[in-house]
Amino acid sequence: MGALNSLPDEPQYVGLAEKTGFSFEQIGILHKRFKQLSNNGETLRREDFNTIPDLLCNPIRSEIIEAFFDRRNFRQTDAVGTVHEIGFGEFLLVMSHFRPPSIRLDDEQKEVIRTEKLRFLFNMHDTDNDGTITLEEYRHVVEELLSRSGALGKETAKGIADAAMLEVASISMGHMEPDEFYEGITFEHFNKLLKEFEVESRMNIRFMNMDTTTLCK
Amino acid sequence: PLSVSLSLSLSSVFPGFHLIPRLSSIVPESCLLITVGLLVGGLIKLAGEKVPPVLDSKLFFLCLLPPIILDAGYFLPIRPFMENLGTILMFAVVGTLWNAFFVGGLLYAVCQMQSAPSDLLNLELLPCLLFGSVVSAVDPVAVLAVFEEIHINELLHILVFGESLLNDAVTVVLYHLFDEYSSVGTVTVVDAVLGVLCFLVVAVGGVLVGAIYGILAAFTSRFTSHTRVIEPLFVFVYSYMAYLSAEMFHLSGIMALIACGAVMRPYVEANISHKSHTTIKYFLKMWSSVSETLIFIFLGVATVDGDHSWNWTFVTVTVILCLVARIIGVVGLTFIINKFRIVKLTTKDQFIIAYGGLRGAIAFSLGYLLDNDRYPMRRMFLTAIITVVFFTVFVQGMTIKPLVELLAVKKKQEAKRSINEEIHTQFLDHLLTGIEDICGHYGHHHWKDKLNRFNKKYIKKCLIAGERSREPQLIAFYHKMEMKQAIELVESGGGVKLPPSVPSTVSMQNIQPKKPPPVERALPQIPKGREDEIRKILRGNLQKTRQRLRSYNRHTLVADPFEDGWSDLLLKKSKMIELEKKMNNYLTVPAAPPDSPTITRARLSSDPQTYQMKQMSDSVPTIQVDLASPQSPDSLSLLDELQRADQRRELRRRPPPDEEEGGLMMRPPQARGGDQGEEGGPSAKEQRLQRCLSDPGPSAEDDEDEPFLS
User: Fold this and answer.
1) What is the rounded distance in angstroms from the CA atom of residue A54 to the CA atom of residue A66?
2) Under an 8 A CB cutoff, do A156 and B634 touch?
3) Considering the entire predicted model, what is its pTM?
4) Which residues form the EF-hand domain (chain A) (predicted)?
5) Do B502 and A178 touch (CB under 8 A)?
6) Where is average pLDDT lowest: B346-360, B457-471, B655-669?
């Protein structure tokens, strides 16, 4: 199963390759995976993700799955809301956020990629699509992260989220009057916050060029 | 012993070089130390005395080297190390092999050339290879000494440093191999295969030995809650034993030491007290500094003292070959490695890695160990080694700093780790693992996640005492941060004008969602800036509070307020609550801070409305104290109670900013939304305070309503 079979839908792949930057081999492998998850159907639904056993142990699995169905990640400008099912194109588009940047990029392109990845993260946090991450949403994130820790979780999560929010506000706003209210983290603030975070080099996974047999069912 | 102490005291004087700032910014410390050694050696020689063979290899390997390596291993940043492990191993193993063979082989070729002086012709291949292996190992001591001062970014630092640590196994194997072979005289293919096998055994064996001792140490530390004073001893003893055991079996002692330190650290740190942790840290730093100083000085002395046989050809060829081999090796390996890396190594990185390949005292000591009879060329070897060491340390060491500036290599980030970054690091970990699972291949993150889960489930339970075993990393980090802030505050004397860590005037008030209060309660506002300061002061107060509390609890040691910290909080919160109830009876005692929480509770229960309004307190972390609900708030709640107790106390005393708690707190919990502070508070509170003092007991509760209405 190591050899490359003739890739179906070649013209379609060309378009996808251009849009997402994957190579043909990578697209072929992901397509196979897509078919596997969707039981050879054309579209993928949320329930199909339940067939992945390892994903069940993941504390933020619901956010991850939602990210696949979030229109904001489909690279269409000004699209909001969620869809119920996605096709292979959208699947690939979401995956392309995790592609490692090529080494030959100049600084401007790196900045673009960085912004893209940060945008993806931002969208994952901002569940109500209003463009800001409110305290409640942030709390939810921290709660989920700590959801595996049992009883300690809820209260501490609140505290941690509060502290984190305070930090963001401090960094972004500097000086605030006592009766001013910090609405939430906008994308610019988010950007500023994670400036040192090096998202472009950390938010990557290795996409296989060769088909391996270790596909988890 | 006299000479040892003499040299030690001498060496401790030499850090005085730091007083000459100009000098130390140009010349790295290691160079200075070697120069000093040279001077000292020269002096002794002039005095006509016989220099004690201070760089006795035994002394070096048994006493001087372990502290440095342990220091390095214990404080090894595990995350970047593991992420780059493949690269590091490649450099360490393949790189060192390449260097050894290249240098050894070419040296032999040079020696065979007709134009070479006659004595060189006698040099056979195997001694050359042996020499090559000795001189090709990048030295951790030298790398540490030089890289410490140039502050390059984490990736490069860990690459070069990791390589220097791990190539010990290769060096040991090659050294012994060639040693054996040269006595035998001939090498067969079988021997070569055996050599490879030997290498695997040495490396893996060393790591295993270290890991076993590390686990033992972690396990022991679990039970040391009653013997806090000797906790550091366990760490040191177990590590040293790991080193010795490995050396005894001719395994790689350095790798054992590193494995031991790295394995035991997360568990030991969770178990031991704060004081022990500090002790370990400072002892390790002290020992490693002293060792490093001594090593360099002795190197200088031995240079002056040792009998040298200078051979221009040999030495210069060696130096050149070392450099060339290093450069070719790094470039070639990076080419291969970059195919597998996500974050590729740029040319700049490669240059720094190549340039950072410093040789040091280990090479010299290994050379020293050579048997004089079998290697008539020993003196020549030693001279060459010393020259190489000097060259790399002086020339490369001195010029690397300007080069780093020139090439604008990314420097180390000095920024403190913020909690947002921590949250997102964890978030990203889970996200990437999830995406890998969706993609369907078992990648890097998948295995890391599995290991973490395994760790959490089984290992932590065994090795960490008590409640700490279930504490997730985020919470642990958060606790540490809070602790640090509190400590900072106390250390600075709790000054009123303490600037917040992020200079801003934003406070919790600003981020709370504004919800219309169900009942109109207009609590006066605190001026913005004060809140932050106050909070910080209160944290400091909190520690003192706890200290006093503790003195009622403990019979043994004088309690350190930071002592068992959070774990004890978790464990003893119920005890504290009981204690406070008892304290309630001693209301008239001025220094009776524990009263406050109890009174708080009493008050809370008497004024449920206030309580309901409270969506989140404005001190972090929040608590939900609800007397009605028996399930206690979590660990932080108690802390919070005391904090707020202090808070109230502090606000009361605002006119004279004085940390000493005096009397009872009677401010109600700061209401949520934070838009209610306490400004008109002080006067009302003073009144209450007086009333309280004169009228202890439940009557204090009557005052409850007042602040809400004023």
Assistant:
1) 17
2) yes
3) 0.66
4) 113-148
5) no
6) B655-669
Dihedral of alpha carbons B624, B627, B628, B633, sign? positive
Helix pair angle (B189-222, B253-271), 10° resolution: 20
ipTM reported for the complex, 2 dp? 0.88
| The dihedral formed by the CA atoms of B136, B140, B146 and B149, expressed in degrees to the nearest 10 | 150
What's the rounded Cα separation, in Å, for the pair B239 and B257?
A: 6
Q: Over the stretch A112-137, which tens digit does the pLDDT of each residue have? A: 888 888 888 888 888 887 888 888 88
pLDDT of residue B622: 39
What would the pLDDT profile of B28-50 be if each residue is shown by its tens digit? Answer: 777 777 777 777 777 767 765 55
Q: Which of B225, B318, B214 is nearest to B267 (CA)?
A: B214
Inter-residue contact A95 to B436 (CB < 8 Å): no
C-alpha dihedral sign at A198, A199, A200, A203? positive
DSSP alpha helices (H): ranges in chain A? 10-20, 24-37, 61-68, 88-96, 107-125, 135-145, 153-173, 187-193, 199-202
Which residues lie below 8 Å from residue B91, measured CB to CB, with a gap of 6+? B159, B162, B163, B167, B330, B333, B353
Are B627 and B604 within 8 A, CB to CB?
yes
Whether the per-residue pLDDT at B551 is higher than 80: the answer is no
Q: Rounded CA gap, A25 and A28, in Å?
A: 5
Closest CB to B420 among A193, A202, A215: A193
A58 vs B: CB within 8 A: yes
Q: How many Å apart are CA B167 and CA B162, to the nearest integer? A: 8
Residues linked to residue A133 through DSSP beta bridges, in sequence order: A185
User: d(Cα B301, Cα B298) in Å, to the nearest integer?
Assistant: 5
